[in-house]
């Protein structure tokens, strides 16, 4: 979503945007299903603040989409454990409570929306929401991976899809 915001200010710097598991809002709203209720997030924030290491141990495998023994989970866990808990909580609160839906109609560069079959944080309907609400041309592609961060646990799936979209020339389509 940061790329989408930047493309509004400087569309001349973007030929396209390629997203993975993007969401303009994680909270459910009256006419929008983002995946979480406010109570869910409050519990998550409370757990993060109460016992950061325990929260990390449970969250990281779900986010990455791998088992506890995988290199991706081990590496991502290490980065989380090295982060100060107060900073991690602040970042989580910012990401999970932001609402960037209103900017989608201002995005005019082509967007390639890559989503995962089973993403713990971004429901399937969010990619369709992005597709319907971005003003520029958009494409949705589903990748067969789990987790919210498939680039960490399934690079063999993600990299070829990303390369295909990087090479895709809208002017010849």
From TrEMBL:
It comes from the Eukaryota. Belongs to the AB hydrolase superfamily. This is Esterase D14L.
